[in-house]
Amino acid sequence: MDFIAGAIGGGLSTAVGYPLDTVKVRIQTERHYRGIWHCIKETYRTEKVWGFYKGVSASVLTVSVISSVSFGTYKNFLCTLCKLRYGAADAKPSKLDVSLAGGAAGAVRVVLMTPSEVAKVRMQTQKNPHPSVTSLQPVSKPKYRGSLHCLKVVAKKEGFGGLYKGCSALLCRDCASSAIYFLTYSALCDWLTPAGKNKPGFLVVLLSGGFAGVLAWGLATPMDVIKSRMQTDESDQHKYKGLVHCARESVRKEGAKVLFKGLGLNCIRAFPVNMVVFVTYEAVLRFTDHYTNEK
């Protein structure tokens, strides 16, 4: 059930946070935006509301699958660790156990996530002026007609490696942030749950999930910037030779602050998105537990 609960939570959270994710990616990869509001205004002025939702349908589906794998891997890895260390899968895990299980979940999701991230980032940074804005000018056809078409074009022009651009940065980002994510959620739930109660209340779940998301994304932002820049580097550009080169060139041209582009937006977006993830996850698990116990 952890896989199903994770899938539902992941899909709903993507729908909630996608517009801000688009703004975040554009700020991280393009230098002409002066800030969050400037990016929002410019995107709406030229592309209207649809500009914020490019690639959302494919993203909801892929994030549902990835979230399912992430939560399922975390739970199963944690149970295996507890069985090996304490002799019982349902034994109370240590903070180290939770961190290791979270890191493993982050590593596993990268394999599935990288191609969808490449498509998402390319779609989000592709400019398609709204017809109302370009009524007197000829409109060129977009390079990518959708997420699947984007993946086909990338695979054809850049090969299999093109689908896994930014994989090294994504692995660094997700292993560390996923460990912090699950550890923070677990620790806050334990701390905020009154003695005698074996499960946290939904308010505790909401707060713990929100703060876990903020802390994880705060840690993840530098690698998120590098990942986005590597993934928008198309075959005819070849600006970056790899993770270290991308980080070095970005810092050389724009200063160390470039690694924290979108930090505020990541944290603002992370709180409601991860509240939705965890409260949905817990609600589905509790509903199914209640239903199976009644049977």
Summarize this entry quickly.
With 295 residues, the protein is mostly helical. The chain is built from 9 helices and no strands.
Description:
The chain has helices at 2-29, 36-47, 56-86, 95-125, 147-163, 167-192, 202-232, 243-254, 263-294. The model has no long low-confidence stretch (mean pLDDT 86). It contains nine helices and no strands.
Descriptive tags:
globular; mainly alpha
Shape: globular
> Helical residue percent?
over 70%
What structural class do the secondary elements suggest? mainly alpha
Let me know the number of strands. 0
- As a whole number of angstroms, the C-alpha radius of gyration is 20 Å
Strand percent estimate: under 5%
